[in-house]
From TrEMBL, chains A, B:
Coiled coil regions, renumbered to chain: none
Pfam families hit by this protein: PhoU
The family this protein is said to belong to: Belongs to the PhoU family.
Domain PhoU residue range list: 17-103, 122-203
Protein role: Plays a role in the regulation of phosphate uptake.
The encoding gene: phoU
GO CC annotation terms, alphabetical: cytoplasm
Name of the protein this chain belongs to: Phosphate-specific transport system accessory protein PhoU
Domain of life, source organism: Bacteria
Localisation: Cytoplasm
UniProt subunit comment: Homodimer.
Length: 214, 214
């Protein structure tokens, strides 16, 4: 019985790890859709989303069962109370990637980001996708060093986000209100995606150490 | 021991209820700050925020203790696994009210919303604040009828949000990119606030009935 319990507990971890990989892939494809006007890539984000949701449902159901049936203690209990919350962050990251993909499809075959902002968006997207990769490693391997890097990456993304507003609000902006609004919302999707990556990683590290960071 | 347990369980409910009231007040004050250029109201949102965070911390700490020490079953266990997630939604609502308050303060003594959008923003804010009141009643009294109304209110807010974009993207928009971006982000804060109200209410009803809605 106890062995079966350990197997089930490991499975919750594997599900979270798979979700982390899913949302990294989703944002990579959504960005290809956005900056390369790659329709197939954007559509794959929408097609893959149900898999993410199914995994989140599994995380929740298995967590509940394990707590209900096994009355776990200490470290295991912490894992089980934290797992659905990490799952919720990952789900939200998937939703944000979907927002980016939908914005790309809405403007297709045109590109949803004006040329003047393409560079800063490519940098924001690079940072976000790199963060997703690190977050995946934190979820899979509980790597505290990578978790600490995520805070610095997040600062970098916030700085890029400010630079984006600087470009839009400078005197030379000639693309009108609609393009500015698209950019503001898209910028926010990347920024929130990064916030949730930091949050998921922070919770995983709390799991491992029992200590809340800062 | 068991009586003490019931007292503690009730306390978690009271904390969530207080948080629900906090975030309703926060969005009411933030909106007064935004639409009435009321600086004191906007500042009160920032001043009150630490109370919300302290309550969320209490919800988490007490939930963990109760599960760890009491090995609760069935309905109680469901309450305890759901409570921190409702707390997370409420915290997020408080953060969104804070975003609105900060936007109001950034433009003070001017109003952050242009006249042309004041009407649709007043309607969005009314809907959001009304939803917060219903959500509070759902959290406090588990009123399933009010929870169902929240879905319709949310549709109403989404419709207002679309109307806002319609005004901004119409030919007569003369306020420039910065005002459009402010409005787009503010609109999103109200929309997300409403989404979290629906989500918190849905989880509370799940708590009570054990059934996920649609």
């Amino acid at each position: 019985m106890r062995d079966e319990y350990q197997v089930q507990l490991a499975l919750v971890g594997e599900l979270l790890s798979a979700m982390a990989e899913d949302v990294g892939t989703a944002m990579r494809h959504a960005t290809a859709g956005l900056l390369g006007a790659d329709r197939a890539a954007a559509e794959s984000v929408l097609a893959d989303h149900p898999t993410l949701i199914a995994r989140r449902d599994q995380v929740e159901a298995r967590t509940y069962e394990l707590v209900a049936l096994q009355a776990p203690v200490a470290a295991d209990l912490r894992t089980l109370l934290t797992a659905p919350r990490v799952g919720a962050d990952l789900e939200r990251m998937g939703n944000l990637a979907r927002h980016v993909a939908r914005a790309a499809l809405r403007r297709y075959p045109e590109r949803a980001v004006v040329d003047q902002l393409a560079g800063v968006f490519a940098s924001m997207a690079d940072t976000a996708v790199r963060m997703a990769g690190k977050m995946r490693a934190v979820v899979a391997d509980h790597d505290a060093e990578l978790a600490a890097q995520l805070d610095r990456d997040d600062d970098e993304l916030d700085e890029l986000h400010r630079r984006m507003f600087g470009i839009m609000f400078a005197a030379g902006w000639s693309h009108g209100a609609a393009a500015a609004v698209d950019a503001a919302l898209l910028g926010r999707y990347y920024e929130r995606y990064a916030d949730h990556a930091v949050n998921a990683a922070t919770q995983v590290i709390y799991l491992v150490t029992g200590e809340h960071a800062g």
